[in-house]
């Protein structure tokens, strides 16, 4: 006879399953697992199997099988949100707005268009990765990121079979759990930077993820049950396309991210970075005044740089030095000019 305490534990698992929104045939499969677990109660190995079944139920009951967020399809507001976070990038923004317009016209119709799978390709610091959260905010969707840099196995994406000790789902299913909806913006970041040994296998999984004919039935090895990814809006980034398989590129709409000019960097620094960094540093606009003619020196402390990460670090360094002087009681207001800018620029 099965121990009463063990019966209570398996009953808890049943209740958890019954109250969750899980596909009917998956629920039936999970109930069979619980029944087998009940029969094992009087045998050795019950505790190990209980952990496995409990963990599996925890995963399938926490996934957003049915939950969708409502898209924001108001073009003017979407453009304002995109402009709020990113200067320029007009080609990317225009492509997104075109897709929103199509969605608005085909909503509820059988011929509803599929989202373009954009791949932003460009040098480090050109704004590829940061576009993901902005896009999600514009669409009113959840945002999740899967980093591909250094990824060494296709199993990292697709998960391991439950037959293996310490098995768990892959990065795709984990991302969906974090998103809490099945239509998030999912950023596949730096898809060109996977390890050489695993590249072919990972590109094979990417083809399945990005193909609308296949991703409605994406099967993670751990779940051993298909999850519908057709509502996910994928966005990919890469430094270049040399290491991306042709079959993957065929499913992507590649957009080249140009290097920023000095004029664009100055505009980004003044309109986006400086207000943000001043706030994060505990300063106020009254604490800092910068002459127009010194912005070129702030933009190019090391010569030409295609991206804006060095620029951001430079402004953070300036703000940090000013914050220190304010706390030290030296002054409350600072005016940066050609005469004193060198003492505030970081020493690279």
Summarize the structure in words.
With 348 residues, this protein is an alpha/beta fold. It folds into three domains: 59 residues; 183 residues, 3-Layer(aba) Sandwich (Rossmann fold); 82 residues, Helicase, Ruva Protein, domain 3, CATH 1.10.8.60. The chain contains 13 helices and nine strands. The strands form three sheets. The chain has a five-stranded parallel sheet with strand order 2-3-6-1-7. The model has no long low-confidence stretch (mean pLDDT 88).
Précis, in short:
The chain is α/β, with parallel strands linked by helices.
Class by SSE composition = alpha/beta
Cα(first) to Cα(last) distance is 73 Å
Low-confidence stretches: none
Name the strands of the widest sheet in spatial order.
2-3-6-1-7
- Number of strand segments: 9
Principal-axes geometry comes out as elongated
Give the overall pLDDT as a whole number.
Answer: 88
- In the CATH scheme, the class of the largest domain would be Alpha Beta
The level of helicity is: 40-55%
